[in-house]
Amino acid sequence: MPLIDRLLSEWLRGDMELRAQSVRQEIETPIARQVDSDQPSDLVRYLERIAAEEHLVAILICGVGGSTVASTPFAPPDVSCGTRAASGAADPARVIATARGSVQVSAFPLTDNTAAGRSVLLVHDASFVDRRRATARDYILTFVAVSAVVLSLLFVSGAWWAFRRWARVLLNDIRGRHFREDARSASLSLPILAQLREVLRELEDRQRLEIEYQENWTPSALQHVVREFLKSPELLIVSNREPYIHSFDAAHVPRVQIPASGMVTALEPVVRACQGTWIAHGSGDADRSVVDRRDGISVPPHAPSYRLRRVWLTAEQEEGYYYGLANEGLWPLCHLAYVRPEFRESDWRQYVAVNERFAAVVAEEADSESPVVLIQDYHFALLPAFIRQHRRDATIVHFWHIPWPNPETFGVCPWKSDLIAGLLQADILGFHTRYHCQNFLDAVDRYVEGQIDHEHMTVTVRDHTCQISAYPISIEWPPRHESSTASAEVCREAVRARYDIPPGATLGLGIERWDFTKGILERFSALQHLFDTRPQLRGRITLLQVVAPSRSKLPAYRALQERTLAKVTELNEQFGDRGWKPIVLVAEHQEPEQVFELYRAADFCLVNSLHDGMNLVAKEFVAARDDEDGVLILSTFTGASRELVEALLVNPYDAIETAAAIEAAVHMPRDERRERMCLMRRTVKHNNVFRWAGRMLVDAAQVRQRQRLAARSRAPKARTPLIGTGL
Ligand code: F6P
Known about the structure:
The chain is of the alpha/beta class. The strands form four sheets. It has a ten-stranded mixed beta sheet, sandwiched between helices. It has a six-stranded parallel beta sheet with strand order 20-19-18-21-22-23, with helices on both faces. The longest helix is centred in the N-terminal third of the chain and has 49 residues, at 127-175. The protein is elongated, with a radius of gyration of 51 Å. The two termini are 62 Å apart. The model is unreliable at 717-727 (pLDDT under 50). 6-O-phosphono-beta-D-fructofuranose binds at residues 240-241, 261-263, 377, 401-402, 550-551, 613. 6-O-phosphono-beta-D-fructofuranose (F6P) binds next to α7.
């Protein structure tokens, strides 16, 4: 605007100046002739005519010294020969603002000899310059405004069109759940579109995971919990039993074996998904020969994904801590199987020492801030307290895999208060059922000093709060060996052929560690009752009983083994006939793939534990039956019976009831078997082990968050002494 303004004024003034020059040439001679005549009125008339013809405001003839020789009438009072003289002649054209508007005054000397020393002032009306400038400014403003509107409209419609194309492509992507650059949208693959797709993809992944861990827990949902909720901490898992045991075979070559342990079955897929370090007792005779310098080994052997750190125990330690306090003391104490617990002071000392040793190993292995330590089972009741002495910042989750009895029963243990106090140093203490949680709280109430919050199921002892919760353990879903094992039909034929089971006999399966809690003898009694009372069923049922020898050093276990063998012999002699035996006993450890084959081959599975925290055999049997067949007979004293309510539930101490359940299993129609199995499969799939671990880890994340907040609100108190010290 200022530029155009200036150019326009210069141009118009230049134009006026040119016109002044031509007027000057026209009037110079006539003026020279008349200026000294004695008829001054003729000169004024002449000037008037010229002014009218040339659209001049006024013409002034100036004499020497600034006097006015002649002038047209009505010359603006602000314009006079005096002012002109005062301004000097250097500027031939000047714009003067007058009361009637601005005028341009062009001055030039008369060069004719007769008029020498005089000059002429030609006064042009210059107000039109301002008017033209104002008009031009209006035009420009209007043009700019109109252009802006037109350009904006063009831009907005262009942007709208482009946006609609992007939106269409994106909507198609979203509808098709497909965020890859395809040929059709390649031309649109601007960075912004690519970023949008990226965000959408992330959102979709997140949503899928959220759905997964609310509906269908998977390893990736569990990994998501570790990453997003716990912010990927260092994970340390501690258990007595190791997931892989190396033993020398006959040729002194180390062979790996997976132990018969519900804890290992459940935890191994979790650790595989989350990685971390699993710390456990190295119990195999070839274990030392395969570890690295830090006593570790990467496992699983065929696809390593986490580190197993082995802890070595002396024979004396193993004797006192594992066989003694854990398995002769706590195991019978917590399982109501009517085997008397043994408590020896020497065992207790070893138990304390081994718990201390494992705490030292945890401290040694933890090389980051705030690690998460997941402790397993009754072997490590004191471990939370010992770990706290090394690492106050650790988040400790302790899961008690066996039942917790009522306070009277637990009260016979001489070290009950120490055990409870040790456990309460965990941040979370988990049991399979709410009933066990309640038993534990009752024991706390009775045997230790602490503040119990029944509403939130927490116990606070000297500023430390432990949350007690029920997390029913489970198994991996889909089961690991599902795809690698043959169909149920093929398994049935293979197993029957292997164990010589006649084609007409219904195949029942009993499979477990050779333990007095499992109700093995009670199962045989039920079978005996059945064959006694229903002779027509003789020859029509065979029980394949697989027992994995366990804790055989202990008298109670050896006694059970002897009684089992004797009872099998008794029944087979009593009812066996023409090659048919009511019981086929297989006393050996079987690898998980073999166990899976047995599950598929069985017509019914008998899980009649006298007492069991959960019992994963029941869940594994259900998981193996993708043919939706097979009947589960389940003890009401297992944690599993709370979930698998479609099983035939029995009191294992009641031989008549158990016998009736076996008979019902034999006669159950296919439709009913399918319906029950489908419902149980749905439960196990839904409540799989990733849910078990995921829920515990989500709670651990919440505990960490609360502790951080509590530490923050405590911080000002801690800093109080510094006030006034200048720090
Ligand atoms: O039931 C508790 C439990 O720890 C199981 O997880 C496991 O099967 C068993 O006890 C331990 O057996 P072992 O003494 O052979 O490790």
